[in-house]
Amino acid sequence: MNIGDAAKVSGVSVKxxxxxxxxxxxxxxxxTESGYRVYRPEDVHALRFIxxxxxxxxxxxxxxxxxxxxxxxxxxxxxxxxxxxxHVAAIDEKLKALQAMGDTLRELAAxxxxxxxxxxxxxxxxxxARTLAPxxxxxxxxxxxxxxxxxxxxxxxx
Length: 158
What we know:
The protein is an all-alpha fold. The chain is 58% helix and 3% strand.
């Protein structure tokens, strides 16, 4: 099938299929005499695998490793499990960061009057201004400090 058909069937955009070929994640497609790419059913299956792994948030380096394990019928499942659990740990860290971000924004919003006055603790907190209490009563970090440390990375689009 051609690249457009492979994209439709696999759910991976044409642009990303080309990208995966360029970085070696997907073998280069065979070409017709006129230069059009031709994809085999196993190529489309690999594209679905890549899409599903991306949907689970795996970075490309780990997807490459998973693809190698998937293609190796003599593999030990222990390595696959190790990769999956390491990814779960990374997801858990991101969840903690997101929770901290939500807590910080809720605290900043609670300190804002939300009226006609220009004074805004939310903007001050985001800017890093130390106008709020330097420490919370429970010993937690200043909201602006938590905001700085609660950033997460986003997976690139597939």
